[in-house]
Amino acid sequence: MVRQLAENSFYNKFDVESLHPREPDEYRTAFQTDRDRIIYSSAFRRLQAKTQVFLSGEFDFYRTRLTHSLEVAQIGRSICSFLKQTSPFLHEDFFIDPDLVEAISLTHDLGHSPFGHAGERTLHQLMKRFGGFEGNAQSLRIIAETIYPGLDSRRGMNPTRAFMDGILKYKRLLRENSQAANQFIYDEQEYLRTFVLGDVNSSAIGDLNQFRSLECEIMDWADDTAYCLNDLVDSMNAGFLRFEKVKRWAEDQGLQGDLARHAEIILSAIREEKAEARFGKKIGSFIRCCSLIERSSAVTSNTNRYRFGLFVDPAVRAEAEFYKRLSQELVFDHSQLHQLERKGRVILKGIFEAFSDSYLNGDGLRLMPASFDRMIRLKHDRRSRARVLCDYIAGMTDGFAIRTYKRLYDPDFGSLLDLA
Q1: Are residues 80 and 121 in the same domain?
Q2: Are 54 and 196 contained in the same domain?
Q3: Which listed site, 69, 88, 116, 261, has its alpha carbon 20 to 30 Å from 181?
Q4: Degrees, nearest 5: CA angle 179-206-156
Q5: 3-state SS, residue 395
Q6: Residues β-bridged to residue 155
């Protein structure tokens, strides 16, 4: 029997079942194996050179997708520990597995494209007639189908059901809302959703995009915590949130009560140059505001992952939303970041169009590496070829995408010395 089942009765065979049979590991639980397979993958390492807020290379102290994912994983594990100690529903032999939450947290941004959310929107527009592009859907595709390279194909890591479900922040197929700009999974991933749900028909669930496992909810709140607090600190350190600018914005908003106090905390952190300390301390309060609630769903009889849900103090949620609104209006809408977003959009569009000429329109040039070139030529329809092409572009780091664009379009870039 897998050691996971013997030590923690919160999970059962339904939770640890994988797409294909696994050999039991003598020293690792099923969820530890999931986590380890992510950490040692090249897809995970590439997150170190993908944009979080500021374009990779702009500063040397800010978060990348990799450091953000590590922070989300740490916060997620801390939430598990806090709930185990405080929730009346949990005890020593019945608890939320922190290794599972860590694996989900490390993976939650794995499928994100270069150049942040602007890159994701660009790829979706380019792929719209071929099934779209979505960061969460791409994360699922990576772990289930493409994370390990082969000679003529790629294969997934054979993840457990609970791990895959934790990645599925959204469960609606694109064809179920063809106008969606995000928050969907690919139509070709319906078989993965069917596996995750087991014997429950998706039509019996209601809003599929709100139907999330407990571990997915923990990851999502850990992501929100890291996103609204730590990205705020980066923005202060980078000079995007200056005292007078924030003060003027707060006055224009006419803030009252808690919101006014939150704004004052930001202003004092900037004035006293204590952003790291002030907002690092807040992470603890964002963890301690969590508790478990019981709930009922179509999958409750199969797993405890839907028997319980995460409750977050509404006042803390409102605080997080306030920080996100401030960042959106004063940082993400800043002209300098929009200029960089535009550059990323131009680069991705240029790469996609050049590759499409070769692999979708048949000009015969071999523009992709040999393994991808072989894979795409084995596909017999344009939709499948476009998905492989998209896999390659989405997996690029910011810097690699820039160098690829230069090789394709810059007359002064492209000697053999530039191929590395």
Answers
A1: yes
A2: yes
A3: 69
A4: 70
A5: coil
A6: 148
pLDDT tens sequence across 232-263: 888 888 787 889 999 999 999 888 999 999 99
Find, among 153, 111, 149, 115, the residue nearest to 132 by Cα. Answer: 111
Q: Is residue 412 part of a domain?
A: no
**169 and 179 belong to one structural domain:** yes
* Contact (Cβ atoms closer than 8 angstroms) between residue 162 and residue 16: yes
Low-confidence ranges of the chain (pLDDT < 50): 1-5, 420
Task: Say if residue 196 is in the same domain as residue 82.
Answer: yes
Domain carrying residue 175: 1-213+294-310+338-405
* Residue bearing tokens 């019996």: 204
Give percent of the chain with pLDDT exceeding 90. Answer: 64
Beta strands in 255-395 (DSSP E): 290-294, 308-312
What pLDDT is stored for residue 155 in this prediction?
A: 86
**pLDDT tens-digit map of 50-68:** 766 655 555 555 678 898 9
Closest CA to 169 of 228, 89, 119, 223: 223
Classify residue 322: in a domain, yes or no.
yes
* Domain shared by 300 and 390, yes or no: yes
Dist. CA 3–CA 236, nearest whole Å: 46
Q: What residues does 94 pair with on adjacent strands? A: 91
**Domain membership flag for residue 416:** no
User: What is the tally of structural domains in the chain?
Assistant: 2
